[in-house]
Design goal:
There is one protein chain. Helix content is 24%, strand content 18%. By secondary structure, the protein is of the alpha+beta class. The chain is built from eight helices and eight strands. It has helices spanning 7-21, 30-37, 45-55, 59-64, 73-79, 105-108, 117-120, 130-133; strands spanning 115-116, 141-144, 161-165, 185-189, 193-201, 204-208, 218-221, 226-236. Helix 1 (7-21) packs across helix 3 (45-55). The radius of gyration is 25 Å and the shape is elongated.
């Protein structure tokens, strides 16, 4: 880990940790560490702690060396359905995860416009907020609704994040019991994105806003000037202003 420590150094330092803790489980012998490096043993939580301290690396980084990824917990918890409504912890690790971003981020990311999350933060070293850490950006598409985009307000408010199923690009025709059952699509136009109800009339794609938004119906040549990115399958949004 580039700290130039020998296995004997690790042994000595871990012994000091074990003495301080009053628990020999924190101790990592020279021979035992060699076996770990050869993949013959998996360390327990105490030895992982010692490795984190000795090598001066965050605990989640040490776990990742053994294919345990703390940052996946939030996303994977979603797949485990619980029968009762409950609070979800706001953090999965004691340490705050550092965010790496280019200095010009504030100028390059336009929160006013609706966009694909992968394009908004393409130059980030890591996902920018904990909400996004729950997302599987490799296997799904996610969109951000611009703070000036009221197309489906109040059903989908400005500043929301939506999950997109890119496999569902064919518009569903038919009638719906209510507006909540009506399919919502994420659409790419020539110079912008929009999240909207859609209707196909001949070679024209109509973007249908919610009645409460008071936005006009927009019409585009299809598929020349408008392309269906996918169907929106989930949304995360605030329903009130966050108190400061």
């Amino acid at each position: 880990m580039r700290v130039r420590l020998s296995t004997r150094d690790v042994e000595r330092l871990s012994q000091a940790i074990a003495r301080e803790k009053g628990n020999q489980e924190y101790y990592i012998s020279h021979a035992w560490l060699t076996e770990i490096e050869h993949g013959k043993f998996k360390p327990n939580i105490y030895k992982l702690y010692s490795l984190s301290v000795v090598y001066k690396r965050a605990y989640h980084e040490i776990l990742a060396l053994f294919d345990i990824y703390i940052r996946d917990i939030g996303r994977e918890q979603i797949t485990v359905g619980l029968p009762h409504t409950h609070l979800v912890n706001s953090a999965t690790d004691g340490d705050e995860v550092a965010i790496r971003a280019p200095l010009e981020l504030r100028q390059t990311v336009q929160l006013e416009k609706t966009n694909l999350v992968s394009q908004m933060f393409a130059r980030w070293g890591e996902v920018p907020v904990e909400l996004l850490q729950r997302m599987n950006l490799q296997n799904s598409l996610y969109g951000y609704i611009g703070i000036n985009d009221y197309t489906l307000y109040p059903m989908i408010r400005p500043g929301s994040f939506v999950q997109i199923d890119a496999r569902q690009r064919k518009l569903s025709a038919g009638t719906w019991k209510n507006e909540f059952d009506r399919p919502i699509y994420f659409v790419e136009l020539r110079d912008e994105y929009v999240c909207s109800w859609c209707e196909l009339r001949g070679k024209s794609l109509l973007l249908i806003p919610s009645p409460q938004s008071r936005e006009p119906v927009r019409q585009f040549r299809f598929p020349m000037d408008a392309e269906i990115v996918g169907r929106v399958t989930a949304v995360t949004m605030n329903i009130t202003e966050v108190a400061k």
